[in-house]
Amino acid sequence: MGLFDKKYCDICGDKIGLLGNRKLEDGNMCKDCAKKLSPFFSDRRSSTVAEIKQQLAYREQNKQILAGFSPMFTFGEDDKIYIDPMKQSFVVSRRNPGSWSDENPDVIPLSSVTGCNLRVDEDREEIYTQGKDGERVSYNPPRYKFTYDFYIDIKVNNPYFDEITARLNDSDVEGMGTMEYNRYQQMAQQVINNLTQNGNAGMPMNNGMPMNQGYAPAGAYGQPNPYAQAQSNQYAQQNPYAQPQGNLYAQQNAYAQQQPNPYTQQNQYNQPMNNGYNQPVNQGYNQQPVSQSWVCPSCQANNDGGRFCAFCGTPKQ
Q1: Are 169 and 121 found together in one domain?
Q2: Same-domain check for residues 85 and 208
Q3: Quick one: 158 exposed, middle or buried, by C-beta within 10 A (0-12, 13-18, 19+)?
Q4: Looking at residues 286-294, what average pLDDT do you find?
Q5: Cα-based torsion angle of the residue sequence 29, 33, 38, 41 in order, rounded to the nearest 10 degrees
Q6: Cβ atoms within 10 A of the Cβ of 209, count?
């Protein structure tokens, strides 16, 4: 058989156009049939015609399941993670609800999730200055601009793929510990809480190393978190870490049990010191009473004080 001989799809039987062939282990497939495969499937070349037909039958069933999928929670701005607590399932798609018909994202049961991790990829770009002759020269020592991408890696038990990766941010995030950085960090923890039984399936990682959790949560800056939706319903129960079988949809951030709010702590530098002139030291900073603790009406998180929730940004009522 020559290189330019006509080929026919072993799946649908249609003639395959020029550059439209998708090779299988024991046959050929047209690009239209290839589009119907799962967007998370990547093992086409080593799949047989029979295996592809089985997957396409599964994909047709997925369309019917997707028609009844009704997400209550949405996370992410590039890839979006939609969670339907009533159906105990989720999907990952770049499309908005109502426009999934072409992509047909796989509806994944929450019970099939075997792991969920936050991965933060760091990229650095050197910053230069201008020399005497106008040329670009490095600072001494060199200076860099750091940007970050936030990925959720979801391990699943599925016959056609075993991992789904979703990018949360739609543009580079500049600076570690900034309000934007912390917002995605909090968003990732909420995804982990919702997709796993105990909300602790994976340690947040930064380029393979555990992330520093010491930065202020996004809400500490008084900005309402747009992802703190629907958190005052019956699913907003106690933190899952406080119960042997915590509620799957508890939205209280796990970091609230681990990290004190840095803005409500006594400043270590406000200690009495001798200034050398025998003047009394101003103790004013240490005389401010600490605000009483309060519970956020939106996310049910415990706050040590402040006018805004340290975990979702909701104003204190």
Answers
A1: yes
A2: yes
A3: middle
A4: 53
A5: 10
A6: 10
